[in-house]
Amino acid sequence: MSLLLDNQFQDLPPDKAIDTKLFLEAVAHIPSFFDCLGSNVFSVIKSDINGNILKIKAVYVKDPAKYVTLQDIVEAEREAHPAEWPKVGATLALMWLKRGLRFIQILLQSLADGERDENNPNLIRVNVTKAYEQALKKYHGWIVQKIFNVALHAAPYKSNFLKALSKGEEVKEEDCLANVRQFLVNYTVTVDAIYDMYTNLNAELDYTV
Questions:
Q1: Cα distances (angstroms) measured from residue 113 to each of 99, 116, 124, 196
Q2: Cα 22 to the chain's mean position, in Å?
Q3: How many CB atoms are located within 10 Å of the residue 177 CB?
Q4: Rounded-to-integer distance, Cα 37 and Cα 200, Å
Q5: Which residues pair with 19 in a beta bridge?
Q6: What per-residue string of b and e applies to 100-122 under the rule 16 or more CB within 10 Å gives b?
């Protein structure tokens, strides 16, 4: 079974409110996605995502009844820390987490759309580069960008990456990409909803690290 389909994101209600508990259960499996990319260089993103998930979870478990949705957490922190917000607590953690989730979204969508280097069709460097440039690069200073330039060149062959997504099983490329497309449906809606929430609450920051 596909690593992605084993950990599907749930449908969102009409108001696009994201249930905190269900979200945390789904994203708990996201760090393992970066193991499929093979290189230890990607462990930087994996570690960052994992750390941000833990920060959000630490806030949630203090009062699950109060923090039913992600927006409940962000708004509560805005009220509790008006001077520091949004650069505080779970609000800041979710801000960075959504960027990591967007990286995955763009990478997988690019593969599903068939984008590739015609001279090297079995490389996913084009897809990883697109995802990095659109989701993360603007938030990184030149030192971090250099680290990721190394990561881009360490990206695995597409065949190896898709096999890893299929948990080591030999699966036809089109079947694997069909699983990717299925996973992306609810995943994309969820990531977009988080971005929209940050825009609507004026919670987005664009500083670099």
A1: 21, 9, 13, 24
A2: 15
A3: 18
A4: 34
A5: 69
A6: bbbbbbbbbbbbbeeebeeeeee
How far is Cα 182 from Cα 174, in angstroms, rounded to an integer?
12
SS3 127: helix
Dmax over CA atoms of the chain, in Å, equals 54
Tokens 């509560």, residue located? 76
Q: CB–CB of 90/57 below 8 Å?
A: no
Its pTM stands at 0.96
Contact indicator for 161, 172 with CB cutoff of 8 Å: no
pLDDT of the chain along its 209 residues, tens only? 578 888 899 999 999 999 999 999 999 999 999 999 877 778 888 999 999 999 999 999 999 999 999 999 999 999 999 999 999 999 999 999 999 999 999 999 999 999 999 999 999 999 999 999 999 999 999 998 998 888 888 888 999 999 999 988 888 999 999 999 999 999 999 999 999 999 999 999 999 99
Instruction: For the chain, report the end-to-end CA distance as a whole number of angstroms.
Output: 37
Q: Residue 4 in contact with residue 165, Cβ under 8 Å?
A: yes
